[in-house]
Amino acid sequence: MQTSMESEDTKKIQEMKTDLNLLLECLKYQMDNAFSQKEALVTIHSICQQNSNASLYFREIGGLMFVKNLAKSSEHSMVKEAALYTLGAVAEQNVYCQQTLCTSELFEDLTWFLSNNDSNTNLKRMSVYVILVLVSNNRTGQTLVRETGCISVLSQLFKTVLSKYELNLSDGNVFQSYQLWSSVCSTLCVCVNNPQNDENQMLCSSLFPHANDWLINCMKPEIIRPICSFIGLTLANNTYVQKYFISVGGLDVLSQVLVQLESDSHKTLSSAKLAVVVTKTVDACIADNPTFGVVLSKYHIVSKLLALLLHESLDSGEKFSIILTVGHCTEDCEENQYDLFKSNGLPLMIQVLTESQNEELNKAATFVLHNCKKITEKLSLSLGEYSFDENEEQLKDVHMKEKNLEDYWKKAKEILHRIEQLEREGNEERVQREKYKDYVSSMNINIQNTLKHLHADSSGGGPKAEDKDKSQSTKLQSYKSHEVMSKACTNDDQMKTLLKSANPVNACYRESGQNKTLCKANSSCNQNLREETTFEKKNFVSQSSDHIFKHPTPIAKNTKQQLPVTDPFTLCSDIINKEVIGFLASDNCSKILKYRCSGCIAVGKSLNSRNFSKLLHSCPYQCDRHKVIVEAEDKYKSGLRKSLICNKKILLTPRRRRQLNNESTTPGGIKKRRIRKNFTEEEVNYLFNGVKKMGNHWNLILWSFPFQQGRKAVDLAHKYHKLTKRPKCVAP
């Protein structure tokens, strides 16, 4: 099945290559037929769009350069348009083709097309499309579009393509002009952004006054969206361009447009969506310098944004943009902070913070609350203690207009109290977490010290080790009565953290320096400990201690190898069992047996992949971890047996290529020869015609003419050389 699919893919690739070669030949031999050339170019575009490898192959056979020269030299406008359209599609599909076309020569040709008055609108639009593709995500293209003067021509088109503010898109000519203008806007956007280009941003900033005029005189979505994208990308992360935009009144114009769209948003849904687009542009202008927010206070933009935030049609991403803009407006502007407070914005931010599950929204709302914390404290104390730095007269006017400012003070106190309460709760949680970490670390140090003495005594032998064992186990069991431990272990994650940090097996491994076998046994025992602890804890909560763990019976008496009592690993295992029993012992829970399955305790044996599997299969009581290992191994072996039954000739190890290539060799080891096929007269004619048209490109000749099946390019080359050596043979 897989072989047939591969053969189909190979066949499709071969057909694609043949089609591209024939289409390229058609372009070369149909220079007088503009319609045929246009159809061939459109077909090449379609093939390259369907197959990503087609663009690369078309470049390899020289088609890309031929189409480029055709766009420059053709006398027919339709051929130029089709050639530019094909170049743009191929460059957009393959980055190598983009780099091949990204030359100053091509940019100069495109600039000439755009500046020539004889070029029609569609030809200019195709030229702009090629520039867009070459500059997109390409710093080299951004540099060339500036150095060749192409960006200046694009800026001139931005100003002159649309001459009237009354945009009637139902008119065909106006609609074509609008499409060209929209393409110019998109191209200017990629010239300044992704990657960001400061020099191009400086050049494009000269278009800000013209863009402001369009925003004021034509508030249609078809105009506002492209211009806002152009403005936002041109001034993004560039303080100098942002200052220039504000100096020419750009922020005032955006504020006026936003106020108008917010008032219209109560009637139409599209106005609300469009207002969010303008909001993002405003945010891009003030994000790097919050002091620019003073300009927005004249238009009460904060209150307008809060009203827009309550619109039901907005999604979480649009609400995040609005709240982030409010945060930048109030970051360093007391006028906007007071506007937020007076518009009941703080309770709205707290509501977003408490009700929303979106992390980005919560961060933005916290940013706004943090900005307004100082002004909230001032208003909560007294109106007399609160004053703007240079706006005391304005505050008096507000005092005269607002008769009931005490309500605002009460709200401010409540909001401040809630903010402080949230901060206090966060600090308490942080202190408790630090206390818990300190307690666990001190407990871990005590256990390690205990194990050091235990291991030293066990290596010395004698009854002293037994006494030490009893005394140390008594100390470990004394932790059971500690109240902090019982409280800290109520959470599953905390229990896992405690067992990881206070694991005596790891301490014993660090101090005693056992060999690799002990290291493997440590990891196995550590995992079993986590499983037993988790099972015991869950059943303690549910008040049912039946079937917690499959407890293995003691090892049979006929076992040949038994571990000595003084083995450090056995002692550590006993300590682990005592510690777990001390942590989780209860009247409702049954005591866990200290024995484990054979796979867990077989440490002293020299284990390998064969005897370990037999050991696990012979054990009637397996832990869950080793049970999974046994089941997986049995499943794999059963599947392997089935495959052996179905196909007796299965290879588990690689062989040499000549031994696997059964098709090309006979049982005697002699290679098969291809069946000899003499060249017919038709094939000879094909061969001479192909050489006449294509030269010594034997693969192209083989693909272009219907030779017999099994014929190769080498056969054609040998046949042609034999024919040309004969003195009587003359090419037809």
TrEMBL record:
It comes from the Eukaryota. Keywords: Chromosome, Coiled coil, Meiosis, Membrane, Nucleus, Phosphoprotein, Repeat, Telomere. InterPro entries: ARM-like, ARM-type_fold, Homeodomain-like_sf, SANT/Myb, TERB1. GO terms for biological process: homologous chromosome pairing at meiosis; meiotic attachment of telomere to nuclear envelope. Residues 454-483 are annotated as: Disordered. Residues 405-439 form a coiled coil. Its main location: nucleus. CDD domains: SANT_DMAP1_like. GO terms for cellular component: chromosome, telomeric region; nuclear inner membrane. SMART domains: SANT. Residues 675-726 form the Myb-like domain. Meiosis-specific telomere-associated protein involved in meiotic telomere attachment to the nucleus inner membrane, a crucial step for homologous pairing and synapsis. Component of the MAJIN-TERB1-TERB2 complex, which promotes telomere cap exchange by mediating attachment of telomeric DNA to the inner nuclear membrane and replacement of the protective cap of telomeric chromosomes: in early meiosis, the MAJIN-TERB1-TERB2 complex associates with telomeric DNA and the shelterin/telosome complex. This is Telomere repeats-binding bouquet formation protein 1. It comes from Balaenoptera musculus (Blue whale).
